[in-house]
Amino acid sequence: MLEAHGASRILASFHDIVPNWIFTGLYFNDDYLAKHPDIVRKFLVGLTKSFDFVTNHEMEARKHLPKYTKVPEDICMICALRELQPAEPIARLNEQQELMVGYGFVKELHDLSPMIDYSYLPEGYRK
């Protein structure tokens, strides 16, 4: 994608170096979950359907990118799309933590398991 904009050639992509890096997540506080569990479930059903759509209809999904990203369509048709997963294994999260500690971005490892609850996901996506 950068070459298409005149940038120098990239020797390795981010995913070549750290495959399946988790860039983001969804967070709901306990109070919201207690008050609106059905809304959270419905939102996550919609999200997993969108992940399935992108996975199974990649070229059609790419056509929607210019509208939402303002990136030109020709670039959207060739850019890398990340593998979308609604639930990440705790081992991958811990591996990322270890890298962040190793490079000094965080001071110590933390137990993330109390913060992760996949029970609101549709059953087929729970890990």
Q: What can you tell me about this protein's structure?
A:
This protein is mostly helical. It has two domains: 28-86, no CATH class; 87-126, no CATH class. Helices cover 45% and strands 0% of the residues. It contains seven helices and no strands. The protein has helices at 14-17, 30-35, 37-56, 58-62, 65-69, 73-76, 90-102. The radius of gyration is 18 Å and the shape is globular.
Count the domains: 2
Unreliable spans: none
Number of helices: 7
| Overall pLDDT | 84
- SSE order: HHHHHHH
Return the structural class.
Answer: mainly alpha
Mind telling me the C-alpha Rg?
18 Å
**Dominant shape:** globular
Number of strands: 0
Beta-strand percentage range: under 5%
User: What profile does the largest beta sheet have?
Assistant: none
Distance between the termini: 33 Å
Estimate percent helicity. 40-55%
Query: Oligomer, anyone?
Result: single chain
